[in-house]
Design goal:
- The protein is built from nine helices and four strands.
- Helix 3 crosses helix 9, helix 4 packs across helix 5 and helix 8 crosses helix 9.
- It has a domain of about 170 residues: Rossmann fold.
- With about 270 residues, the protein is α/β, with parallel strands linked by helices.
């Protein structure tokens, strides 16, 4: 009798006897049959987040876009209720190599030629269509990602015109309301001259709200023309970031829903 008790106790201490399907929307955290069952159960929308590995000034890690878009895609998928999230694309167009241009002038940035980036996007979408997803959403967190996403979406939608599968691209997720974002920040005390377009108060606030461990608060400095910063991040805050994210996520969820409905109209 006691041996059975000891055996049961040992099994309990060694971990769960039966693993449960995790509470996740991330495709890569599911097994193949869990993914199959999720699709069969109605999760037929899939978000492909595109980020980038690029310099973000002395104070933000190279993976800023990847962390940010993954966090936002998680929230968007959960609010949609019928969506999963594909692995984030961390390699995107960032500039030339010979000679180095754009962000490639800064150590650690990784670039892809635009045609290669487009082909990766295309075959990610083709793979997901094969497995039963009906609505494939490109969610790009960086400006250089947008032209390729628009082109691939147009190409695949033309090819799949007779199928019940559509690709949706949302530039508005990236910078859909620049004036509104500026107004929101200025309402919270930020001056207009502090707002730039890279590694500035907006950019830094967004990362403080999603992955604060990637921000070096002791290295905040305004742009000087060579440090990779355009603007002034020194008064960035997680509170500003959360307000900006809520605005973006709410708008994007509504746009995705509308796009899916529109794509199914005769």
């Amino acid at each position: 009798m006691y041996s059975h008790i000891f055996l049961a106790a040992a099994l309990c201490l060694s971990g769960p006897v039966l693993a449960q399907t995790p509470d996740t929307v991330f495709l890569e955290q599911l097994t193949w049959d869990e993914a199959r069952d999720a699709i069969a159960g109605g999760k037929t929308t899939i978000i492909i987040p595109t980020g980038g590995t690029e310099q973000n000034g002395p104070h933000m890690a190279l993976g800023k876009h990847n962390a940010r878009v993954a966090a936002n895609a998680n929230t968007i998928a959960r609010r949609l209720g019928n969506a999963l999230v594909a692995p984030t694309m961390a390699y995107v167009p960032e500039g030339g190599v010979e000679p180095p241009t754009g962000h490639m002038r800064y150590t650690g940035t990784i670039t892809l030629p635009d045609p290669v980036y487009r082909q990766v996007l295309e075959y990610a979408a083709r793979s997901l269509k094969l497995h039963g997803f009906k609505d494939i959403v490109f969610l790009g967190d960086s400006g250089g990602n947008q032209p390729g996403q628009m082109a691939v979406a147009a190409t695949l939608n033309a090819e799949w015109a007779g199928a019940d599968v559509r690709v949706h691209n949302f530039f508005n997720y990236y910078r859909g309301d620049v004036e509104g974002d500026a107004a929101l920040m200025m309402q919270r005390g930020i001056r207009k001259d502090e707002i730039g377009d890279h590694a500035d108060v907006r950019d830094t606030s967004l990362l403080l709200a999603t992955a604060p461990g990637l921000v070096r608060m002791n290295k905040l400095q305004p742009g000087d023309g060579k440090n990779g910063v355009v603007g002034d991040p020194r008064r960035a805050s997680a509170e500003i970031g959360r307000a900006l994210i809520e605005k973006t996520v709410t708008r994007t969820v509504a746009e995705i829903r509308a796009s899916i409905v529109s794509a199914r109209k005769p």
